[in-house]
Amino acid sequence: MELKKSPGLVFEDYDANKEFFSLEEDSAFSIRTQEIKRLDDPRPLGLSGHLRVKNESYSVAQAIESSIPALDELIITVQPYINDSGIDETYEICKQKKQKYTDKIKLFYYTPEVATIEYFKDTDMYKTNDLEDDIPNNSIHSFSHYTNFGLKEISYKYYTKIDADQIYLTDKLRELRDHILYADRFAKSHRSFMNKVFGKLLRPFCNLFYLILPSRVYICLLTFINKKCAFGMSGFQLTLRGGGQELDANNKTLLALNPANYKKELLDYFIPLSLHYNRFYCTNGGMDTCIFAPNSNNLYGYFKDHSVEMQNLVGNAGFRNLGYFWFHLGMIKRNYFVMGEYGKDYISLRDFLKTSFAKLKPKIQTKAVYKSDYKGFWDNLALNFEKDKAYIRKFLKQSKESSKS
Q: Where are the domains of the chain?
């Protein structure tokens, strides 16, 4: 496969002179331009997480419990999904977590119908001609606006997205948060021309420095040279065997951090090695799941040249060789399962932890089409393969101890 050079990102600007950022000015969920501009104001040192969630009652509690110890606050924006019993289970779980973590959680029920660009034409909004062929980034019905609605609520300097279908390696996420906050003493709000020059000179040596330096020193070095950084994070895919025989009566599997929901040990879930459904491979994430200090230029939006909705990281030097911070359950959520031959197309987490990178590398496929993404994927996997096994084992041990208590 011939890899392409990634095109530049072209992001839709907003009119900073208008009172409202949002297209629908009379909505209770509209965003005022002043709220976007406030992202440029100084914020206290800390890490704000933002959880966007809809119909994910099977995993949202675990996503919150595994991530919140590493966060200074968590903004939760819930989209409605009413089940056959007339209950929004996901929202009810989030309300319970709000009661448990009163000082840490901000909870919003975002009721406008929302669609991503990818699925817009399948919605009633498109079929009834309420909107044009593309949803504008500033429409309350766009996934971008929905994300920015939560982004504007952050209280702390640094920000990261938390996904409801991800179970986080708490200790590793907390360590990265601590390293970034410590390194903030070297950060500045903008990168100068010389920062960019020195950063470019440093980049070829990043993998070497990552191998030989303690994590905190490495983060400090990158921040000292670049002044403004975005630190990318990735995770491992986990799902079940083809056919989904292991699913429960609700056609979902619960991974839990407490004995009431502990349905099956993580060790017996599977990591896809070959490309599944032309979309899923052994990892997910990257620069769109990062920790950084956003300003009014770093809004979420649709990038037409990449045909993707993601965070605009302009002004930040991006680094994504920091390893794996979660288990991603996105395949289970979509009822996608591993298929093919065991050991060739997929492997259990139990055997994954016993296998060397050298043995697995020839079997691993990736969907990366850009040179930078391809290199980033393999660098990340090679540099962190053994290191992150230790974090996974520790997490599994903690889960087992929790289930016995």
A: 33-398
